[in-house]
Amino acid sequence: MSFLHSLGLFATLGLIYGCSTTSSLTSAQQRDAYLQQFIGQTSQSIQARLDLNSIGYQQVLAPVANDQTLTYTVIRPVTIPVPIAQNPADIDAGNIPIPVTPRAQSYDVNLQCKIIFRLENNMAKSVYYTGRTC
């Protein structure tokens, strides 16, 4: 197997591992429970009290409000580990392994989605998400 194939395989496995460990049902349930507490509140109250950092999101744009919706555009930072294999034959031959910094052993991505509160008479009636990354 060539070096590029090996690197591609490790990157793919790292991506699968990163996705499977970051999208746990528990975090989705926590997000849903947190956001549901704002149902029945005014859009002004939501904007004053909503703390997206507490559920692992970073707000990237100011919220957009109109008569029907209050929309937040957010990102969720995710670090995907990329394993770097050492060739044991190189170590046995006396070659010194090159130390790799922890930063080079992962790939950082920001997964973007929108959190949208549906409004009626300026009161939140429901919340939903767009984008598969919420």
Count of discrete domains: 1
Q: Which structural class best describes the helix and strand composition? A: alpha+beta
- Main beta-sheet annotation: 5 strands, antiparallel
| Low confidence ranges | 3-10, 18-23
Tertiary shape: elongated
The topology string of helices and strands comes to: HHHEEEHEE
Ends distance? 37 Å
Q: How many β-strand runs?
A: 5
Number of helices: 4
Estimate what percentage of residues fall within beta strands. Answer: 25-35%
Radius of gyration: 21 Å
Summarize model confidence as the mean pLDDT. Answer: 77
The proportion of residues forming helix, as a percent range, comes to 25-40%
Structure, described:
There is one protein chain. Residues 3-10 and 18-23 have low confidence and may be disordered. It is built from 4 helices and 5 strands. Strands 1, 2, 3, 4 and 5 form a 5-stranded antiparallel β-sheet that branches. It has helices at residues 3-22, 25-36, 43-49, 88-92, and strands at residues 58-59, 64-65, 69-81, 106-120, 123-130. Helices cover 33% and strands 30% of the residues. With 134 residues, it is an alpha+beta fold. Strand 2 (64-65) and strand 3 form a beta hairpin. The two termini are 37 Å apart. It has one domain (3-92, 104-130).
